[in-house]
Amino acid sequence: MNSILPTLSIDAVPTQQSALSPDTWPFDLSLLPETTYLVGGSVRDALLGRRADYLDLDFVLPQDASLAGSGPGAIAVAQFIAKHCGAGFVVLDATHQIARVVFERATVDFAQQVGPNLEADLHRRDFTINAIAYHPHSQTLFDPIGGHQDLQRRLLRMIAPDNLAEDPLRLLRAYRQAAQLGFAIDPDTQAAIRHLVPLARRVAAERIRGELDCLLSLVKGTTLLEQAWRDGVVTPWLPDVTASDWVAVRAIDQTYGDLRETWPDFACLLMGWLRESPVPGLHRSWLKATKLSQLVGSDPDQAEQTLLRLKYSRAEQQVVMAILRGWEMLQQAMVEDRPSGAIASGLPRRLQYGLFKQVGPSFPGIALLALAQGTDPVLVRRLLHRFQDPEDIIAHPQPLVTGRDLIQALNLKPGRRIGELLEAIQIAQAEGLISTPAEALTWAAQQQP
Question: 141: domain CATH number?
């Protein structure tokens, strides 16, 4: 049954910057045809009081919607608004009449309604809370499926199993949205998801990766991602996960939460990413990479195949693999330093040098994992302080000599021996045996037969 909620005053919406208010939009309300509705996540979030610094608006228009000076249809309206405002414009789907207008601090999508009317369009969506439409000209909400009630109940409920089957990514998206909003998943919805699990294999890896990354980056994401795993939704993509792996991921979450109180500078560092990456990208952080490292399998070859299957970028693959290999190396180093297996408060410089060389910029992830696994925090702090000091000769050694220097000074021939000597010189430098180019050449000469 159709449900028109009472006329809504913008002031009644519990948010300081509501997407329901045209005052927050990058274009004037007068540019929208009278038959336009705002739909989707922006309506949901406004009703929940969730504030967005970057607006992401979705409008749905009937086929004959038009503006003075534009032709009918969603694409024509979007193109007219983009031209009027000097904004970017792109057609996303010409067949289904979907276009996007890109502003500096907002993305606005315009789509032709699916079906003969707005109610039919809303009935094709995924969850009831995403099927509430707002008419900005009259300030009324159209809620034919009871989404507003589910918002109040904090419940994620499907509209129909067929809607989930139409786009199987919605199976995993249910857990992601529940984590984002702090909602419970309706039992019937979860049962339908379990029944539809075989369809998850059809989803493109890139789309699965996006949902996984979001869940791994959310405070409550681990609980919901683990539930998705137990329900079989992510098994095709994370085939080597075991119950003990979730214990490790939860320990990382707990450690990160503790660090925000006890070591806020390090916690802030963990939310960063590679310095050389000019555009970090969505959900890229050392925290996420460390958690992911515990879900791809302990065997390096298997882990690499899982990351490739999920289409992670080369940079992210290298980071996750460095965390896995670095953690294994740190464990071995601690055992070598203390044959009894006891955790040391320090490691020999040679072992520290080898660790930093192996892991490179990924060390924050190893430090987080080490703390989560119970490694002596004194050791971790000492290693992290070295990593954060660009002048530290162990974490960031600067070559004292070049291969050409060795060839000329020692009358050597080019070959593998030159590389071996350069590596030995860096280790000697890390151990404090040499500190100048002259000392390096003298020391290298002493190593010759």
Answer: 3.30.460.10
